[in-house]
Amino acid sequence: MEFDLSQTPPMPAFYLLASNAIQPRPIAWVSTQGTDGISNLAPFSFFTIACVAPPVLSLTITWRRSSTGLSPEKDTLRNLRETGECVINIVTEPLAGVMNQSCGDYPPEISEISALGIATVPSTQVTPPGVAASPVRFECRLRQLIPLGDGPGSSHVVLLDVIHVHADDAVLSKDMIDPDKLASIGKLGGDGYTSTETRFSLPRPIIGQ
After folding, report:
1. Domain, as residue range, for 125
2. What CATH number did the domain enclosing 168 receive?
3. Using an 8 Å Cβ cutoff, are 52 and 107 in contact?
4. Residue 66, pLDDT score
5. How many CB atoms neighbour CB 207 within 10 A?
6. How far apart are alpha carbons 96 and 185 in whole angstroms?
7. Is residue 191 part of a domain?
8. CA distances from 72 to 52, 67, 93, 152 (A)
9. Residue 187: which H helix or E strand, with range?
């Protein structure tokens, strides 16, 4: 089957095509804090490394679905625009359930952290707290917001400068994060998730030898 996107409305067609095909996707569980002092916590699976030098992470925040009755701008985006700070908490298998609960459409005056009883720890260089049980946390400051589109399905690409990284000793080997010790999860299409339990290695080819 072929899909001509010039003839097909991108919502929901492209969303379903992309989110079902581009998988697994890493999950950024993003904690922010508004100018009112209310902390927000929400997961996003449009997330990756943007650059190493300088260290920059990329996060895409789509508009909230209008049917919720809330503002289309998600709390995470509003807080980032107002304060320029966040923490990206890596989600592991034991955190999957509460992470999923935090993606509900809570009103802005309700903190997911408080509502769900999620334990936090103070950050080192930013105001928003980190999730205490997350073994890897990236403290970030906003570099750039790039708006894309207008209306349902539109989004903001968020570029974040990483200024501090916390890594729990339990996931380290030789003073570096060991992927085999980090039981992170990934997002699939629909309501699907996957673990990183099954792994395999392929050495990079050496051309010209």
Report:
1. 10-195
2. 2.30.110.10
3. no
4. 55
5. 5
6. 8
7. yes
8. 32, 9, 30, 9
9. strand 185-187
pLDDT at 173: 96
Q: How far apart are CA 99 and CA 10, in angstroms?
A: 28
**107-121 pLDDT, tens per residue?**
999 999 999 999 999
Q: Judge whether 4 lies within some domain.
A: no
Whether a cis peptide bond, with omega within 30° of 0, leads into 54 is yes
Tokens of 156: 């903001």
Return the closest-CA partner of residue 89 out of 73, 76, 78, 72.
Answer: 76
pTM recorded for the entire structure: 0.93
- The domain tally of the chain equals 1
Q: Report if residue 208 sits inside a domain.
A: no
Q: Is residue 205 part of a domain?
A: no
CB-hemisphere CA count at 13 Å for 90? 21
**CA distances (Å), 173 to each of 58, 180, 201, in order?**
26, 10, 18
Strand stretches in 45-154, DSSP E: 47-51, 56-62, 85-90, 120-121, 130-131, 136-148
Cβ 59 vs Cβ 69: under 8 Å: no
pLDDT tens-digit map of 25-76: 999 999 999 999 999 999 999 999 999 999 999 999 998 765 556 678 899 9
DSSP 8-state class, residue 131: E
